[in-house]
Structures are given as C-alpha cells and as structure tokens.
Task: structure prediction
Amino acid sequence: MTYGGTLRDRAISRRMVRSRSDVDVVLHLERQSDGTRRLTQVAVPARDPAGLVTMLPAVEFEAGGARPGPGADRLAARLEG
Result:
C-alpha cells in the first residue's frame, strides 16, 4: 500500500497502527530520475490530540547535508534504548 504526499502530511489511523510501539521509525525514500532511490527523511511516530498516529520528521536529508527535525530527540531516545 502506498500513500501520496510527504510524511509530515500523513496520519495513520489506530486501525492501521495499534500503538506507537509497533513502528519505531519510517524511512522516506525518493526515486531519482535515473531510477535509484535516495533517503530523504527519517521520521518517528507521534500521537496527535485526536489520537491519530502521525510521522514526525526526525532527520531530513537535502543536497547540503542532513538537518534535524522536530522528532530528532525522539529518534535519539529510540536509538539509545
């Protein structure tokens, strides 16, 4: 199953993800014009006020390098424990 849009625009219902512990990270790959794929984002799950699980960008990769996102601390905690 695939979804359009970016990770930050997506919300996954409780039926699709039983709890945040089911998914630790999501890797967002982008297909390049030559057919190869490039890692563009690492995201971590977070529950919004409505109870939906959304993906919070932790690291975003651009031509100039990597930059931390709002989920960087959550990703660090998952990697440590």
